[in-house]
Amino acid sequence: MAEIVLADDGVGFDGRMAEQRPLGGAESAVVGLVEALARRGHRVTVANKCAAPLDHHGVAWRPLQDGLPERADLYIANRGDRLIPLLPQARARAFWLHNPARYVLKPRYLLKIWRWRPTLVFAGPSHRASYPAWAPGRRAVIPLGVDGCFRTAPPRATAPARRAIFASQPLRGLDWLLDLWRSRIRPALGDAELHLYTGAETYAGALEKHRAEIEAILAKADATPGVVRHAPVPKPDLVARYGEARVMLYRGDPGESFCLAVAEAQAAGLPAVVQPIAATPERIIDGVTGFVADDAPRFASAAIRLLGDDALWQAQHRACIERQRGWGWDEAAQRFEALIPGATS
For the segment 180-210, what is each residue's pLDDT rounded down to a tens digit? Predict the structure, then answer.
C-alpha cells in the first residue's frame, strides 16, 4: 500500500460530483485515476478546490487551501506549475499534463521541472511529441483510462436508427460539423438525425469568455434540419445514448491531447468518423472501428456509409467491442504505480 497525493488547482469538483453531472475531460480523468488507485489498495488524497472535505469511494477529497499531507510515496501535480514544488518530501513526483505541452515551454514551468525533476506524464504519442527533446524532465506515456460503464455496454444485435452523435464542447468543431451535416450528410439521408450532447456548463465557467460564440453555434444547431440538441449528461446516461446511435461524428481539435470522448464511444461499441487532427486519430483503428477522413468530402462520405450501411455498421460495431475495450483506469493506475521507487506492479 502506498500513500498517493494528487493536487489540482483548476475548477472545483469531487468524486461524488462526477456521479451527478458531467465533468470536463481532465476532471473526469482525475476521478477515474484516483478511484482506481484506491480500489487497488492505496491511501489516496486529492487536494483541490472541492467545496468541502469528502471521503468517497476510498478517496479523501480535501480543499487545497488546507494544505497537503507531509509525505507521500507518489505526488501527482495536475496541470498547474505552482503545484510542482509542493510536498517536497514525496518519494516520487509526477507532473500530469492534459493539453499539448506548448504551454509548458515558459520559464516558470521549465525552471520548476528542472529543479524538481518530476516525471512528465503524457497521454499518447502526439501529446509526448508536443514537448521538445531539449526540455527537461523524464517522460512517461500513460493513456487515459475508459470507465467501466463504457467497456461493459452490451453489443447490439441489430443496427440502430440513422442517428449520429456529437458529445464534446461546442467550440471543438461543431460549427464545421453543422455546415457539413446541412450541405452533404443530411441531404443524402433525409431521415438521419444528429444528436448533440453539448454545452458550456460542463466546464464550470471556464468557457464564459466564449459565451457569445457558443450561443451562436447552438442557435445555428437549433436551426439546422435533423439536429436535436440535448444538455450534457453523466457518463452512465451517455452510454445509453451511444447504444441508440450508429456513429460519433467529431472533427478533432488541436487543443486535445487524448480525446476521451471518442475513446469512450469506441469502447461502448460506437464507430466514429474523425479527421487527422492532434491525438484524435490515435483513438480510431482506421477502416476497422471508424474512419479517419483527410477532408470534408471524405468525412461526409464515411458518415453517410455508417449511417446507411447496416452490414458496415455491424462489422465496425463488433470490432469496437473486440478491440477498443482493453484499457481502463485500472491499467492506467498500474502505470502510475510504476513511478514509485521499488514498485512491483
Answer: 999 999 999 999 999 999 986 554 455 677 7
Q: How many helices (H) and strands (E) does the chain have?
A: 13, 14
CA torsion sign, 250 to 256 to 259 to 260? Answer: negative
Rg of the chain over Cα atoms, rounded to whole angstroms, equals 20
Query: What's the rounded mean pLDDT across residues 219-226?
Result: 96
- Classify residue 52 as left (phi > 0), alpha (psi -120 to 50) or beta: beta
277-280: long-range contacts (C-beta < 8 A, 24 or more apart)? 277/251, 277/252, 277/253, 278/100, 278/126, 278/252, 278/253, 278/254, 279/123, 279/124, 279/126, 279/127, 280/250, 280/251, 280/252, 280/253, 280/256
Q: Tell me, what's the pLDDT at 207?
A: 60
Grid-cell match 467529431, residue found: 250
CATH superfamily of 3-145+328-337: Glycogen Phosphorylase B; (3.40.50.2000)
Rounded to the nearest integer, the mean pLDDT of the chain is 94
Q: Where in the chain is the domain with CATH 3.40.50.2000?
A: 3-145+328-337, 148-323
Least confident of 28-32, 150-154, 172-176, 210-214: 210-214
- The whole-angstrom separation of Cα 88 and Cα 207 is 34
According to the CATH classification, is domain 148-323 in 3.40.50.300? Answer: no
259-269 pLDDT tens trace: 999 999 999 99
